[in-house]
Amino acid sequence: MENSPKEMPPNDDLGPAMLEAIWIEAAIAIAVMMARLYARIRIVRQVSLDDYLMITSLVFAIISGGIITEGVVQGFGKHIFYLAPHQQIQAIKFAYLSQPFNAMAQCFGRMSFALFLVRVMGITALRRWILYSIICGQFAVNIVFSGLTLAACRPINRYWDPTVSGSCWSPLVIEYAGYSQGAWNVFSDFVLALLPGIIVWSLNMKVTTKIGLVILLALGVFNMIAAIITMVKTKVIAADQDITYNYVILDIWGHKQVDDSHENGSISSFRDPKKMDYTAHSDTSHQVCGEDDFASVGKSEDHILPMHAPNNIRKTTKVSVSYRPSQTSAGSDGYAKEGHLNVNHIVPFDTKPAQPDDRV
Fold first, then answer.
1. pTM, entire model
2. Cβ of 29: how many Cβ atoms within 10 Å?
3. SS3 67
């Protein structure tokens, strides 16, 4: 057993409370996922890559929860000083092996939500660049973190069984890798919460609708809070020897991040993008020739977000042109000429702008 402290802590067990929190959140995430798939299949009638990524995230989360459950059976959640040597080995083993699955569950959840934003809001090059950077960064950072976790000791079971001959890296390697992963997760959550709010608030729609959409799309701020708490707790607990007890809080907040990403990403996708009012209205006039001749362009209504559906979008633009009497624009009878031009053209749903601008 580990060297016992001079004053033994109470022989309490955080394991059951941790499992209760993990599996209640998991049940909510599963229910929300089922509702998401129902909406996507029966209402929107389209399942996209972001849906598959969220399903993958849920699978990894369930595997992680199952592994940590076995760890609790072996003693994870109790003070290490009260565990027999074989219990210590098994408790640390299962807690350790759950980490890569939890990291990838978080990763795929954030990737899914970012891809959802690309699908419904990625109409400019800058937005797509930001979101794809988050997607690629999430995958790279979490793959590296998971690889480092599994490669820290050779053979791997030396990590939880000190009697096995072999070698391990310095504990600082995994500690700093955890800080890097946590920092990127916090940054990703911040961007994924802020960017949709900025975009929605700039749209020409009712303030109440804006507020509702901003709240709906910015639920990731709770995920960011969970990521910050995980980082802070990692720094405090890293030097603690009572890992079977104190690391419980890291697992709780790690699973909290996963469940928040599921709920945030799935709830945001319930609304059918084809039925959302993403229209911009304009009424402009400009001078085209001299001081007297000008063209007045009437109101137009154009969709400003890409819509996805089996059919195309038909856009009708009506242009009214008026001419004031002058030597260049008046007809033979001396009166102004007024004409109307109706333009109808088809814009496919998947057509990308030829020259996307760089506006946020």
1. 0.69
2. 25
3. helix
* CA angle, residues 196, 61, 215, in degrees to nearest 5: 20
Q: Give the tokens for residue 122.
A: 């990625």
Measured between alpha carbons, how far is 257 from 195 in angstroms, rounded to an integer? 19
Beta strands in 170-328, from DSSP E residues, in sequence order: 279-289, 293-303, 313-322
Q: Enumerate residues 6+ apart whose C-beta is below 8 A from 116.
A: 48, 50, 265, 268, 269
Q: Which residues pair with 340 in a beta bridge?
A: 320
Burial classification of residue 214, based on how many CB atoms lie within 10 Å of its CB (0-12 exposed, 13-18 middle, 19 or more buried): middle
Q: Which two tokens stand for residue 231?
A: 């980082």
CB burial string 316-353: b at 16+ within 10 A, e below:
eeeeeeebeeeeebbeeeeeeeeeeeeeeeeeeeeeee
Strands in the chain per DSSP E: 153-154, 167-168, 279-289, 293-303, 313-322, 338-347
The pLDDT tens digits along the chain (360 residues) read: 455 556 777 888 889 999 998 999 889 889 988 988 888 888 878 888 999 999 999 999 999 999 999 999 999 999 888 899 999 999 999 998 998 999 999 999 999 989 988 888 777 888 899 999 999 999 999 999 999 989 989 999 998 998 899 898 888 888 888 888 888 988 998 888 888 888 777 777 777 777 777 776 666 677 777 778 777 766 655 556 788 888 888 788 888 888 777 777 677 665 544 454 444 444 443 434 344 443 444 444 444 444 444 433 444 455 555 545 544 444 444 444 444 444 444 344 343 444 445 455
CA separation, residue 198 to residues 123, 214, 216 (Å): 14, 8, 13
DSSP, collapsed to helix, strand or coil, labels residue 318 as strand
